Every structure is written in structure tokens, then in C-alpha cells.
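pasting for the record
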Amino acid sequence: KSATSGTLQISCARPCQVRIDGAASAQSTSTGARVPSGSHAVVVTDSQTRASRTLRVYVPAGVTVRRVVGF
């Protein structure tokens, strides 16, 4: 693992789209997305209802941070 990045895993009960710092994420629940360490803006959109939630998540270097989003 790089000392300057961590992993962010976002889980949803239903299919959802995840954007991290404005970019679409191809992350999967099992592996997550590799991100630079620091604070990130995460927008999770329910694929069915189009409802969205915005999170601010801090990811320390070398750490996996998990968040569960419910709609």
C-alpha cells in the first residue's frame, strides 16, 4: 500500500452511483476505490429514485474507510 493513499468503500442497500470529488467511481463494494489520503466529497445517488446523499469522508493514508448509505 502506498503511504499517501487509502481506500474508500461505499455500500448501498440498492444499486447506486458513487462520485468521489466530482468523478464517477468504478469502485466495487468488495475492493473499494483507491484515493489520496485526506478529505473527500462523496455523492451517492440511488439508481432507481435518483435521490442523492452527500458525505464528507476523511481517508487516512494506508487505511480502508467504509461507509454504508441508506435511502
